[in-house]
Design brief:
Elements (H helix, E strand, L loop, with lengths): L15 H8 L4 E6 L6 H14 L4 E5 H4 L11 H20 L3 E5 L5 H10 L5 E7 L2 H7 L4 H6 L21 E4 L5 H14 L5
Parallel strand pairs: 1-3, 1-4, 2-3, 4-5
The structure holds 3'-phosphate-adenosine-5'-phosphate sulfate and adenosine-5'-diphosphate.
């Protein structure tokens, strides 16, 4: 797969641990996954705000935003979605190395792709958060009018309509956004991070 040859890893003197010590919290990826309109962006924005108030150093990667730049050569075929998630996994890994709590909001519909990201980092560095809402609810919300277009046949291969979404089998957290408020969800995630000693 890799086209890079004759390359040799060069270590830094400053380690991930040293960077984490400066920040006084552990670094991790909070991987939000779910249907379009389930609430990934909304929740990750609100959670980042809360984490910032608590003094954590964060960065948020969002599907729509990253597809404007780094991944603007990728579409929505299964292969392109896999490549999208692979790149985000690698970027998130760099951010973990930099000592950040990274929040990612990508549909990431395939379990294998999410598992590949999980396997890129240490066991406790990947926290999969299933943002769960029924297709009916997401379609009712339709914040960008995309379900309407997909139903009208104007968008092909739309997740949940004519492209698959594989539900997480073993997520660290499931947030049911048609039952839980945004504030409750943020509190649930912050409590998890405190109990597991990611945050001091
Ligand atoms: N065909 C199709 N299927 C799903 N989504 C589509 C599609 N075309 C465009 N969009 C818009 O792109 C956003 C999803 O991008 P992601 O990078 O998160 O997708 S993926 O993880 O690679 O599957 C998604 O954003 P969210 O609604 O925030 O999930 C949509 O706004
Ligand atoms: N409990 C909730 N959590 C998150 N979003 C919610 C909730 N209840 C209603 N919403 C609404 O659902 C929509 C979710 O859209 P968005 O965050 O863009 O989803 P996604 O990023 O998964 O596509 C927003 O309009 C948001 O205000």
């Amino acid at each position: 797969m890799s086209k890079s040859t004759n390359i040799v890893w060069h270590d830094s003197v400053v380690t991930k641990q040293a960077r984490q010590d400066l920040k006084d919290h552990k670094s991790a990826i909070l991987w939000f996954t779910g249907l379009s309109g389930s609430g990934k962006s909304t929740l990750s924005v609100e959670l980042e705000k809360k984490l910032c108030e608590l003094g954590a150093h964060t960065y948020r990667l969002d599907g729509d935003n990253v597809r404007h730049g780094l991944n603007n050569n990728l579409g929505f075929s299964p292969e392109d979605r896999t490549e999208n998630i692979r790149r985000i996994g690698e970027v998130s890994k760099l951010m973990i190395d930099a000592g950040l709590i990274t929040l990612t909001a990508f549909i990431s519909p395939y379990q294998d792709d999410r598992n590949n990201v999980r396997n890129l980092v240490e066991q406790d560095e990947f926290i999969e958060i299933y943002v769960k809402a029924s297709l009916e609810e997401c379609e009712k919300r339709d914040p960008k009018g995309l379900y309407k277009k997909a139903r009208a046949g104007e968008i092909k291969g739309f997740t949940g309509i004519d492209a698959p979404y594989e539900e997480p089998r073993n997520p660290e957290l499931t947030i049911e956004t048609d039952k839980q408020t945004i504030e409750d969800a943020v509190e649930t995630i912050v409590t998890y991070l405190q109990e597991k000693n990611y945050l001091k």
